[in-house]
């Protein structure tokens, strides 16, 4: 089964670029995510982390 898939993919022209593009997209996404995490302000993180607790208190009233 794997032999059939491998032979079929080798016959497609230009397919070798797709793994590189997907790797580049994921790498850029995680670099941006780490940059955002390290540069986020503490006040914003505390506010966002308390949102679920604030919604529970409003629902009880």
Uncertain stretches of 5 or more adjacent residues: none
Number of domains: 1
Give the overall form: elongated
Beta percentage is under 5%
- Return Rg in Å: 23 Å
| Helical run tally | 4
The largest sheet is: none
Helix and strand run: HHHH
Beta strand count: 0
Helicity level, as a percent range? Answer: over 70%
Distance between the termini: 60 Å
Structural category: mainly alpha
Mean pLDDT: 83
Textual characterization of the structure:
The chain has 61 residues and is mainly alpha-helical. The protein starts with a helix and ends with a helix. It has one domain (2-60). It is built from 4 helices and no strands.
Could you name the key traits of this structure?
61 residues; mainly alpha; 4 helices; elongated
Explain briefly what this protein structure is:
With about 60 residues, the chain is mostly helical. The protein has helices at about 1-10, 15-40, 40-50, 50-60. Helix content is about 80%, strand content about 0%.
Strand and helix map with partners:
Blueprint: H1 2-10, H2 17-39, H3 42-49, H4 51-60
